[in-house]
Amino acid sequence: MAGRYPRPTRRNFARQPASYLEDPLPSAQTALAVVPAYNEAATIVSVVAALREHAPQFDVLVVDDGSTDDTSRRARGAGARVVRPAFNLGIGGAVQTGFVFARDGAYDLMVQVDGDGQHDPAELGKLLEAMGPGVDMVCGSRFLVKGEYLAPVSRRAGIHVFAWLLSRFVGQQVTDPTSGFRLYNRRAIRLFADDYPHDYPEVEAVLMLHHHRLRMREVPVRMFQRGGGSSSITSGKSAYYMIKVLLALFVALARKRPLVEPGDQAPVAAG
């Protein structure tokens, strides 16, 4: 798989400011894999090893979000760089830590991979192949592959509701809005480094991308059941999760964003 797409190279860290809507990406690209993890000692070694095997051109950063087990030690032992915030930030804060790291390191691409083993790094080539001109985020969708692991029925119902709503809000089909297997270019990295939803972020992030006139694309990927640990969204919490995400979506729709159309007056001016 690795030989089928351009291989990004590594780069030393250097801040490189730019706007979200900047020029097309250069041909030589640097890449970072961000693995948010909370008590994933049972799976983190295999996740890092799979990334190093199937995507050796990606630097690997594990964001250990306050784990109380050996996640950090095992991740370092597997060859990943580890960032450990001073306290538990939640999934949104952990992922945004990765975006800030990618932005400040001037990476051209960032892929988000769950630390529980659900995402298959061997499928990363599909995301890279889809990241072409005019695409800022590529999402791996389990619902575009027949016969693959999906999700418990209670969660799947909510996912379909979110997908139906988002498809109408953004004007394109969205099949797997809760997928955390996502590839971002520099424009999306800078957007989400500045502002990223913190509670249940994946669904609202799709809407944010649309509001900032960035574009997404979905590709079919296989996913697995968790390799260890436990999900924060149990069957008993599915209804609560669904209501909370729906509220976040409608609040996001009502938020004012100072986007400037060509020819408009600047929203902020000196003196």
What would you note in describing this structure?
This protein has 271 residues and is α/β, with parallel strands linked by helices. It has a single domain (2-11, 28-254), classed as Spore Coat Polysaccharide Biosynthesis Protein SpsA, Chain A, CATH 3.90.550.10. The chain has helices at residues 44-54, 71-77, 90-104, 124-130, 153-170, 186-194, 201-211, 238-254, and strands at residues 31-37, 59-64, 81-83, 109-112, 137-141, 182-185, 216-220. The chain has a 7-stranded mixed beta sheet with strand order 3-2-1-4-6-5-7, with helices on both faces. Strand 1, helix 1 and strand 2 form a beta-alpha-beta unit. The model is unreliable at 1-27 and 266-271 (pLDDT under 50).
- Structural class of the secondary elements? alpha/beta
Which fold does the CATH topology refer to? Spore Coat Polysaccharide Biosynthesis Protein SpsA, Chain A
Radius of gyration: 18 Å
CATH superfamily, called what?
Answer: Spore Coat Polysaccharide Biosynthesis Protein SpsA, Chain A
- In terms of DSSP E residues, the strand content is 5-15%
User: Which architecture per CATH?
Assistant: Alpha-Beta Complex
Number of separate domains: 1
Walk across the major sheet and give the strand order.
3-2-1-4-6-5-7
**CATH C-level label:** Alpha Beta
Helical percent range? 25-40%
| Number of strand elements | 7
Shape descriptor reads: globular
The low-confidence parts are: 1-27, 266-271
Specify the number of helices.
Answer: 8
Largest pleated sheet: 7 strands, mixed
Mean pLDDT: 81
**Pattern of helices and strands:** EHEHEHEHEHEHHEH
Terminal CA distance = 55 Å
